[in-house]
Specification:
Strand content: 5-15%
Radius of gyration: 21 Å
Number of strands: 9
Shape: globular
CATH class of the largest domain: Alpha Beta
Order of helices and strands: HHHHEHEHEHEHHEHHEEHEHEH
Number of helices: 14
Length: 335
């Protein structure tokens, strides 16, 4: 049986090491956050170093079934789960910045010369862009996964600027996708998809080894729902179709299925099976408002790497997962 005192010390040392190395907090700031002294923080950092808890990265020795990260890995069959510690009561904006910082650090470990990175625009990915650490690599391609134009124009600078920021960070080439997020007519999209220049971009999207995205959720006021992209009729139709969330402006149901949803025939985003196949399908979530959509995406196997704040991760694990969501009983329409 484990010694509780030893287990508590190990847990505290790992927590302090994460704050110090991943969050780049000073020992004084850590001491203030934890309600302890700087001397205690220093002792815990020394303990972490002397006992092999810290090498180049922070390693959690409690990788047993009860740890949050290992529980996420086991329950959702993920390749990687990174849980970001946050103190109780801090503003949502601070939670986002902490999660974005660790997501940016993890992204750096996935990038290598020759990598094609696909990004889906949104507030979370924008926050990650602000936390990037410059790293010059050879033959990097960064491609926008979905258009960001609105009904008033084909091009929206938001998505284009995000692609440029990631490309500049890695010394790569930026490939924006200058089309609307949603077309007025599915036939218009089908015609544009036949253009050679668009086919080139879509092939590049399909080659991406790393896909970086978050979950779009009406509950959190994501840009898809607040940026003028959807009409009232669109929203009603999505609700009737059982929308649980979206990835790259492609909507999915509670069971993670997306096929047959009318709105997706007008979306500029890729088919979601692309996320099922990607070597690194990296989803970043900050805050519990996205848990409904996140759970649905996990049911659909649309994610294989997850970066999430600790309270949201715990809530995700604590919620019972229905084995037969109502949405899965819907007849899937083909087109």
């Amino acid at each position: 049986m484990r010694n509780p005192t030893h287990s508590d010390t190990v847990h505290a040392a790992v927590h302090v090491a994460r704050l110090y190395y991943y969050e780049r907090m000073t020992t004084a700031a850590i001491a203030e956050e934890m309600g302890t002294s700087r001397a205690t923080v220093s002792r815990l950092l020394t303990y972490a170093s002397e006992n092999g808890l810290v090498e180049i990265r922070v390693h959690d020795p409690q990788a047993h079934p009860q740890s949050v990260e290992s529980r996420l890995l086991k329950k959702f069959k993920l390749k990687r789960a990174l849980v970001v510690p946050v103190p109780a009561g801090i503003p949502d904006s601070d939670v986002l910045q902490r999660v974005a910082r660790q997501a940016a650090a993890h992204l750096n470990t996935l990038m290598a010369s020759g990598t094609v990175l696909g990004i889906a625009w949104g507030k979370t990915v924008e926050a990650i862009a602000g936390q990037l650490s410059p790293r010059q690599l050879a033959n990097i391609e960064v491609v926008q996964l979905n258009g960001s134009g609105t009904g008033e124009g084909m091009v929206n600078a938001f998505g284009e600027s995000l692609v440029m920021r990631f490309a500049q960070n890695y010394g790569g080439r930026a490939h924006s996708f200058p089309v609307p997020a949603f077309f007025d007519y599915a036939q218009t999209r089908e015609a544009l998809w036949r253009e050679r220049s668009v086919q080139h971009l879509r092939r590049l999207q399909d080659r991406a080894e790393v896909l970086l995205f978050s979950i779009g959720a009406a509950e959190t006021g994501s840009l898809v729902h607040t940026g003028g992209y959807l009409s009232a009729a669109d929203t009603r139709r999505l609700q009737a179709d059982g929308m649980a969330g979206d990835i790259a402006t492609v909507f999915f149901r509670e069971d993670g299925s997306w096929q047959g949803m009318d709105m997706n025939a007008r979306s500029s985003g890729p088919e979601l099976d692309r996320f099922q196949r990607a070597p690194h399908s990296m989803c970043v979530v900050a805050g519990q408002g996205k848990l409904r959509g996140l759970r649905a995406a996990l049911r659909g196997k649309l994610i294989n790497e997850l970066v999430i704040d600790e309270p949201s991760a715990s809530a995700l694990l604590d919620e019972p997962d229905e084995t037969m969501p109502a949405a899965s009983k819907k007849k899937v329409r083909t087109r």
